[in-house]
Amino acid sequence: MTKFLLNHLIIAVLIMLPGFGLAQSLSVSGKVTDNKGAAVPGVTITEKGTKNATATDVNGAFKIVVKNNNTALVCSLVGFLSKEVSANSQQPLKITIEDDTQKLNEVVVIGYGTQKKADLTGALSSVNAGDFKSQPVTSVAQVLQGRAAGVTVMSNSGAPGGDASIRIRGNNSIQGDNNPLYVIDGFVGADYSAINPQDIESIQILKDASSVAIYGSRGANGVVLIATKKGKSGDTQVLFTVKASSAQVLKKLSLLNAAQYAETVNAKALATGTTPIYTQAQIDQFAANGGTNWQNEVFRTAPTQEYQLNLAGGKEKTTYYIGANYLNQQGILNNSYLKRYALRSNLESKVTDKFSISFNFYVNRQQGTNLRGNLGRQSPVTQALAWAPTVAVFDAAGNYTLNDPVGSITSNPVALEQDQELTNITTTANGILDLRYKFSQDLSLTVTGGANYANTQGYTYVGPSVSQNLPSATRSSLEGVSLQQTDNLTYSHLFGGVHRLTATAVFEFQNYQANGFSATGNNLTFPNLTYYNLALASTYGVGTNYSNNALSSLLGRVNYAYKDKYLVTFSIRRDGSSKFTTGNQYSTFPSVGLGWRLSEEPFIKQLNFFDNLKLRGSYGSTGNQAINPYQTLTTYGNVSTSFISGTITPGILMGNPGNPLLKWETTKQVDGGIDMEILKNRLSFSADYYHKSTSNLLLPVTLPLYLGGGSILSNVGKVNNWGYEFSLSGDPIVSKDLKWSSSFNFSLLNNKVVSLANGQNIMYTGSSVGSGLSTQSEFVLIPGQRLGTYWGLTYEGTWKPSEAAAAAQYGAVPGDAKYLDLNNDQQINGSDYHPIGNGLPKYSYGWNNNVTYKDFTLNVFIQALTGFSKLNYTYGSAITANSDNRQATIADILNRYIPGVNETSNIPGFSKTNKNYIQSTRFMESGNFARLKNISLAYNFSKDKLKKVDLSVFVSATNLWTITGYKGFDPESSSVTSAPGADVNQGIDYGAYPNAKTYTVGLTAKF
Amino acid sequence: MKKSIIAISALSLLLLTQCKKALEQDPKGQLVGTDAVSTLPGLQAAVLGAYQPLKNGYTSGFASSAIVGLVMGSDDLTTHPASNKQDFREIDQFAASNTNGRTPIIWLGCYKTIININNILTAYKNTSGNSAAVNQLLGEAYFLRAFSYFWLVRFWNNIPLITASSYDAGLLSITKSPATDVYKLIEADLQQAEQLLPNAKPAAGRAGAGAAKALLAEVYLMEGGYPINDQSKYALAAAKAKEVISNKALYGFDLAPDLNVLWSGTQTAINTPEAVFELEFSSASGNGNSIYGKSAMPGDENGWDDYFCEINFFNNFPAGKRKDATFHTTFIMPAGNINWQNGQTKHPYYQKFRVNTPTPNYLTSSTNQPLPLIRYAHVLLTFAEADARANNAVSADDYAAVNAIRSRAGLAPLNGLSANDFESAVVQERAWEFAGEYTRWFDLVRLQMVESANANKNTNDLKPIGAITKANYFLPIPNADLQLNPNLSFK
Q1: Residue among A885, A883, A880 at smallest CA distance from A896
Q2: Are B139 and B40 in the same domain?
Q3: Which of A153, A413, B193, B279 could be a cystine partner for A380, CB 3.0 to 4.6 Å?
């Protein structure tokens, strides 16, 4: 630490050395050595503020002609601290550069405090603003995606601001929330979707028990600490960024054209004994004139613009950062968009030597329209694959065609986009005030008060063309207030120069309360007045709701380091939650972490190889209380039903039975890790192994329909997650003009259901995504198997002519679908269902590269997820006649089994006896993909050319290319949300909003 | 220094006021436990709410064509041979899988109502208020439970018999009860209901004592045949039906004079005197009747072809007013009307279930039309058949009952038949009168006529896959429940 300060002091002094004499060119020569006196080659020597530069030779010598003899020279080399020297010092210059131990002296934010990076015992990953600087990220999910080992990000929805599932070290919980806990500038449980990524300075991802146990009952899924930007004392810095993008759907599926469709429909009619629908004349006409390409009708090229203005600066004692942002992101489905206005102000002031204040405040207004990303059968995407290409978008009168007489039985896909609106406008205001009092150098008290206010106004309209001519509209309002108090007393002292002790004690209380209401007008008298005049309607619906919960916590932590060599962290937290009944409300979460910096040991030091070498290990427990309030209670729910035709009467129905015995879900985690840095910190490597065991799993146990269906939330069973995480980063090329820095991370994640309650050997969970398409639970939990295991039939291809007799036993004919008859009872039914695959990615890769050549910077970022399968309902529903679809639209149907023509095909032919089960291996596909997530090229105009402005421009492409065998639009998007309980159901794609391919140009000016 | 301490203390205090709220749940706005029905309005909300699972869209109950799917095995109904009709087709072909998507809709609807009624039948004891009003609601509750179990026992025969007032983990491993036990409960419930209920229905779509008696007559008639085969029930059926017929004014029942009113597809069809028990709907509020409308209409007219009439049934149907009111045989198409023989499915469709919304020909799959599940016509024909079977002779009252129906249908009256011939004629009359109305299938079952009714299919109709056995008389228990409770696989 002192060395660090000293270095900075020297630099500061050097900078402030008053120059003298007239500006004139001067030839300067010198030699650069390290602190052991050895010559350092390859050091870049730059005339400050210019592009005039040279490099030292093998002897560390250099020569440069500077234009201004008052200037300073900047010496820089990776692995060393950069240094400035005055050009007109005594010649030849003798310059000594210091090893960059800054990385290790770096102080990182941990929960409820900070710690020297070198002293960490936990497993942390960091993402800094620089890592995503020239990438057009618009959400925190995009910032995290692929950038940190152990963090899996899936963009479930390609809708602007769309849902993403962010998982740290897998999925602990089945019912509970698996989203990590977000802590923004100390506000615990913040809404990450309300954060403008441009305000982010750094993100720390806490993964192991020793780091997260301090968050106790909410730490089980890992913790994401986000620190926003701060001002630095000095002149005001103005940063202005503008970006413009254009997005398109990743790909379009190969569908039948109108003539092919008509021929196929007729072929089916003939094969099943009904009357062909199309005449030859119609078919010829379609062949000549084409039909409707519904995919082209629902997708579009969508523009996005974003502006960011930062003002940062301050005086000696008071600094500020102000960030303002406007984002207008149009979605690739028509009439869908996100608009965001964000304003942040971060202030810090040292009132006295002992007393300091910081106040961070942001407001954010976000409007999302038609971003229903995960909708199944009523999604415009599903319907675009269901509507007959022989039907026009509009009828002769110019209205939306209301009925597809042949294909889909539901609404026109374009009308689904245009004749309904689902808008949510959320205004978030968050303020967090820290008052810090330093009693002494060692002891300080911080009292933090935080408040988060979120107000969501909903505006829904369902127009006549998508509602059987019964237009309706809804207005809703939801107000949520979350309050936090944290009192933090921290003592830190270095005893005898070798024992560093930091002790922290915290009291924290959080309370959340929500109030909402909604009003619906049905069968609007004047549909064109939409939700602006609900009173003119034939029936009404109203609703109000209230919810609150509180969490009260006490926690303590001790960090001890001996000579920065032996490190111990011990923490304990006791949480009480109002969500449980008395007796089950409190739980305690302890942890311990150990670290040994081998690189400080003489026997390692003498190897002269490791700049840092550390072994880490930790063990601890965390909890999960992420259930909804009141689930311990049995409650009635509201229903409305009709007695006098055309009116409704309110009534009540029993809800799910409450479970008063509910208690905390507990995760115990053990972690072992190693960190090393070598080659003057040019290469760093980190590896971790962890094992998490979650017991008292919260699971909604499905109740039989004969008990009215629904579920009862219970603590059942146990699940283990274990895995490895590796990250490697380094600077493979470092030269004067060309630099390449690269970081790679890889995680392997495995999990297993260990046991289920009451010795049960199977439990069923449904996604309800495939309502109408699949009638059975789509997932099962079986001890010994992974979470996210699909339950279904094995498809064995089509019955072949030689198997006609066997087929007949199943009531089938050759060309019909053949399924594995597990129990050999000559019928295909529920007893033939079995585990058929898994929807949770097992391997995750991220590779980020920055190549700088002179003033150009190229970023290439590749992400991959492998080891999982998807159940492709989108494709399945479009190639079979099922649910809302009466005909196939996928071009592959042309290759179906046709008796006497194509009897080898495994795509079933048309018959009266064929049965298509979507929930089968026929529609299960590998979801593996590798994706060029970002490629961007930035050009930085030199300051000397533009006087005072630091200007850079960039072009980038997101999701430019994807390697995958997946037949749907996008292996990444899924119809299951990141919502609690949905994790095990991940992997079903039913008309999900696909991700986009986006091209962006941007400009940043700093002055 | 001082200021800083004041500031810190003030903030702490400000925040500490928050923590005073203990960690207690404050379920404002929630109806917790059985308290909700401690008042009369609360009890009423619970009873009215218990109707809702019987007509909850495509999710549960009788609001969607699921109910038609379940009776597809009868000779008055069939479905599209291809299209998206796998669930219907496999029942029509007597090859129903326990994974069928339609069976759970009826199963759940009935059971969800039962579960709620079970709760009410205990919770009402805490209800304070006018005891007559409480009794009336109680009667309605008994009716609903009996009504629900009657559908379940007819479709599935031996079933879990749930009467517990609240959830209990032991219910997760319950075994099936024999149908006789279920019928016992149904009879007892209806006997309670007829005592407790007022004579006339309290409102459209709700049950009165007349409905309880009419349903009880139906129950007895069913018990007279397969699988209970208790012939002594015919006399009870006749007596109960007679009670309703003799006091029809008291209960507010009568035949609608004109079938075209009954099946007008407009407001006039709602809550006619003929509606002994019907479900009411409100499409605008998302409580629509989706059996009618698109579901019943031909693809040629932008319908969904979910169900229509088998060809032989149609051909044998006696011509006249009733046939015209029952069937839709000329399809209205932009390029000119066509006859059903030239339609896509080459089948006649039901006129009964078409709708005429205020905007004519606007196709809808969500209608305001009521769903009559017991008509006064049922009472008359149940009486005629049961009375003849009970006495092995045909009385003048029996002829009067059946001829009232025939006369409205524009057919000549029956007379001079032997008891056997009369019984067959009434069963046939029920087939015509209730064509497409979820009645024929149960007649075929109780009289063990399923095989014969499916023996000689028209070439354009779906044929059974394999031979029909008594096992095909009942549906497989939905796999979802079988998975959760393997005990249900035992007989």
Answers
A1: A880
A2: yes
A3: A413
What's the mean per-residue pLDDT of chain A?
86
B33 in reach of chain A (CB within 8 A): yes
Three-class secondary structure of residue A842 per DSSP? coil
The CATH number linked to B34 is 1.25.40.390
How sure is the predictor about A822, in pLDDT bands with cuts at 50, 70 and 90? very high
A324 with A351: CB under 8 angstroms? no
A541 DSSP β-pair partners: A520
Q: Please calculate the CA angle A33-A36-A38 and round it to the nearest 5 degrees.
A: 45
* Alpha helices, H only, A46-205: 102-105, 140-144
**Residues B187, B286: one domain?**
no
pLDDT in tens, A150-197: 777 777 777 777 767 777 876 656 655 677 889 999 898 888 877 888
**Cβ contacts of B282 on chain A, cutoff 8 Å:** 539, 642, 645-648
B173 and B46 within one domain: yes
On whether residue B249 sits in a domain, the answer given is: no
- β pairing state of A187-188 and B338-339: unpaired
CB contact under 8 A, A485 and B368: no
pLDDT of B16 > 70? The answer is no
| Domain around B316 | 281-369
Cα A889 from chain centroid (whole Å): 33
The C-alpha atoms of residue A57 and residue A1005 are separated, in whole angstroms, by: 35
User: What pLDDT, on a 0 to 100 scale, did the predictor assign at position A979?
Assistant: 54
Assembly ipTM: 0.95
H helices present in B225-317, as ranges: 233-246, 248-251, 259-262, 311-316
What is the band of A768 on the pLDDT scale with cuts at 50, 70, 90?
low
Q: Is residue B483 part of a domain?
A: yes
Distances from the Cα of B66 to the Cα of A94, A452, A756, B295, angstroms: 91, 48, 35, 10
- Count Cβ atoms below 10 Å from residue A455 Cβ, excluding itself: 15
- In this prediction, residue A51 carries a pLDDT of 75
- Which residues of A, range 748-777, sit inside 8 Å of B by Cβ? 762, 764, 772, 775-777
* CB-CB under 8 Å, B108 with A708: yes
Question: Do B58 and B164 have their domain in common?
Answer: yes
Residue B218 lies in a domain: no
Do the chains contact at A539 and B284, CB–CB below 8 Å?
yes
Lowest mean pLDDT among A71-80, A217-226, A301-310, B77-86: A71-80
The answer to whether residue B414 sits within a structural domain is no
Residue A11 in this model has a pLDDT that exceeds 70: no
pLDDT band (50, 70, 90) for residue A7 = very low
Q: Does A514 touch chain B (CB under 8 A)?
A: no
- What confidence score (pLDDT) does residue A65 get? 84
Segment among A247-256, A525-534, A878-887, B423-432 with least mean pLDDT: A878-887
Residues B183 and B316 in one domain: no
- Give chain B's domain count: 2
- Same domain as B286, residue B192: no
**Do residue B184 and residue B324 come from a single domain?**
no
With CB atoms and an 8 Å threshold, state whether B108 touches A634.
no
User: Could you report the per-residue pLDDT of B41-58, keeping only the tens digit for each?
Assistant: 999 999 999 999 999 988
Using a CB-CB distance cutoff of 8 angstroms, which residues of chain A are in contact with residue B487?
A: none
Residue B481 contacts A where some CB pair is shorter than 8 Å: yes
- Residue B311, pLDDT > 60, answer yes
- Give the SS3 label for residue A861: strand
Short-list B92, B54, B53, B87, CA closest to B72: B92
Q: Give me the residues paired with residue B379 across strands.
A: none
What is the percent of chain A where pLDDT is above 70? 93
Together in a domain, B298 and B190: no
Across the range A481-497, mean pLDDT stands at 92
- CA–CA distance, A267 with A388 (Å, rounded to integer): 15
Q: What is the DSSP letter of B89?
A: H
Last residue of a domain, one of B369, B404, B435: B369
